[in-house]
Amino acid sequence: MKTTHNLTNTEKAKLLHELFPDELPLFLEYLNRVCADFEENKEEHLKHWNNAFLPFHFWLHLSNETASILEKYRFDLARYSRPFSEKLFSTYTSLFVNDQIVKYADHNCENDNFKIVVNLLYESH
User: Could you list the mean pLDDT of each consecutive 10-residue stretch along the chain, which spans 125 residues?
Assistant: First the structure.
């Protein structure tokens, strides 16, 4: 097995799904709400955008792409690790989804083990 810092985004997502299959539907619901909020309140988000690295419109595009993937593959993403990892984490949408996984674990998740693994996979490098 690879060390955590040698895992790709896709491999991290697949591992996370396989370790926490009951948590991922909750995360996907959260992610869907975040995408909807970005679209519905884009003017407000734009006013408060302070990320000099990524322009807001690119982030909004990633959110919209993520929402499209969620709509198209909703049931497979929740049930199977391969579509979850390949559809959401093999393109630039992984930037958006990785950020949301960390935020979900930090602020919304009640599963302490999930929080620990997310920290290990996404924040410790």
Answer: 87 96 97 97 95 93 98 96 96 96 97 96 75
